[in-house]
Amino acid sequence: MSGEREAYMLIYGIPALILVILIVTWFGGLYFFKTAIRRAPKPFLIDNPNLMPEPDNELISSASDLEWLDMQDGEMVSITSHDGLKLQGIWLASTGKSSQTVILAHGYSGRGREMAGFARYYVEKRGCNVLMPDDRAHGHSEGDVIGFGWLDRKDYVNWVQWVINKVGNQTDIVLHGISMGGATVLMTGGESLPDQVKAIVSDCSYTSVKDELTFQLKQLYKLPPFPFIPVTSLISKWKAGYSFGEASALKQLTKVRVPVLFIHGEADTFVPTEMVYRLYEACPTEKELLTIPRAGHGTAFQVDRVRYVEVLDAFLNKIMMQRAN
């Protein structure tokens, strides 16, 4: 009887164990999908040591930058995405004669107004028109799933066309994004864009959604990528319409046709600094790289604004001068 019991366990026990593992993995994938991609509060971002700004520096925009934005004569504008979502943004029209326009792309779980510090620079320093969209599933825009830049790239193509319709064919457009927004503008750059788009500025972008979520899975949960990343990616393809592997800034960079300025904090432990070097190497066009010592994720502009603006100004001046000639 003992042998029969052992044979029974061998025949039926192992398949049962495999079934349990598959069920646990599937529900784990559903949990990670809901946590990372569904529109919902993101408690794992609160008090995350990898997202803490340097002492005496705000994350992305300071309180004074936000106060400045609230004092501007901003206009709420909207477009409809290719899949029927109403997307909203803030439009700041130039008070001068400049035809230059910058479209600012915010980060994960953020919204357009959080780019106020950059908007202030472009308005006061360069006299530009500024558009600050809320990405799908963020801020005032509709949507239930976060696009991580991949779904958003088509939205930003539409925003580019909106700007051209608003300002006219003579406008020169710069795409400038931070974190997920940095990946968004790189992914957008790989699409077919009108000639009015002259340059891309990508601040602390990840190389791909797969790379970034693999890194965060280890950081936050101490788990290996397999089987959770493939299963969650499969669920994402099913529920959100994209897999993690296809959502790649690296792949899109091979199709970029405009100059790119890459920026990253050297102390970034949320999107590892090594990613920017891979992005830089993959870029086939004119390119520049700026890394800021002691800057964590999303804080390069605040930690060393003088250096940031100096390099950004020189890059944009050079590009615009080339286009003028």
Description:
Helix 2 (63-71) packs across helix 3 (116-124) and helix 4 packs across helix 5. This protein has 325 residues and is of the alpha/beta class. Strand 3, helix 3 (116-124) and strand 4 (129-133) form a beta-alpha-beta unit. It starts with a helix and ends with a helix. It has an 8-stranded mixed β-sheet, with helices on both faces. The protein is built from 11 helices and 8 strands. Residues 54-58 have low confidence and may be disordered.
Topology of this structure?
Elements: H1 2-36, H2 63-71, E1 75-80, E2 86-92, E3 100-105, H3 116-124, E4 129-133, H4 152-167, E5 172-178, H5 180-189, E6 197-203, H6 209-221, H7 228-239, H8 249-253, E7 260-265, H9 274-282, E8 287-292, H10 300-303, H11 305-324
Parallel strand pairs: 3-4, 3-5, 5-6, 6-7, 7-8
Antiparallel strand pairs: 1-2, 2-4
Helix pairs in contact: 1-7, 2-3, 4-5
**Sequence of strands across the biggest β-sheet:** 1-2-4-3-5-6-7-8
Distance between the termini: 91 Å
Number of strands: 8
Order of helices and strands: HHEEEHEHEHEHHHEHEHH
Q: Residue-averaged pLDDT, rounded?
A: 90
DSSP helix fraction: 40-55%
| Count of DSSP H/I helices | 11
Detail the poorly predicted runs: 54-58
* Basic shape: globular
Rg:
22 Å
Sheet-strand content, in percent, reads 15-25%
Category from helices, strands and their pairing = alpha/beta
Sheet with most strands:
8 strands, mixed
Concise summary:
By secondary structure, the protein is of the alpha/beta class.
Tags for this model:
325 residues; alpha/beta; 8 strands; 44% helix
